[in-house]
Amino acid sequence: MINIVLFGKPGAGKGTQAEFLKGKYNLTHLSTGDIFRFNIKSETELGKLAKSFMDNGDLVPDEVTIKMLQSEVEKNPNSAGFLFDGFPRTLAQAAALDIFLKTKNQKITATVALEADDEILIQRLLERGKTSGRPDDQDEEKIRNRYQEYNEKTAPLMEYYQNQNIFYAVDGIGSIEAITERLSKVIDSL
Fold it and tell me: What is the predicted pLDDT for the residue at 36?
């Protein structure tokens, strides 16, 4: 079983690359963004709570995110592996994920970070916001707030996973195909 954590700031291309990775490696793709949107659209209690944070450009609190993610893992007991997209985002989430996976006799195989310059990513999100309808992609101040939260809360995860020798950085700038090739090289070497 292979379990991969895909990192990257909003707009780094995680969703695009996750589509490729899930198919090539037969992984169940667990995107916190997709899980949030499903819960929001379905107007679940967790979805309403998540929406209140997302609309302000804030990250959803750990306990809400963890409950949603655990529920999705439980729905896929026969999966060949999981691709965690947008989770964990904090050290507390990483520890909770490790503990949860251990109860399933599993662990994280690798963490891969798509790295890109903030200014390039901001322009990507503003373009996406023109068609996505997502309010958090239409306001540069909210985007910058998301990046500040990412830097403060998520960046420390790099050291957490580096200490486990399972962290890999991949250049997230270039054509989709070039980035996909870089990701494949990392995963195929595991």
Answer: 82
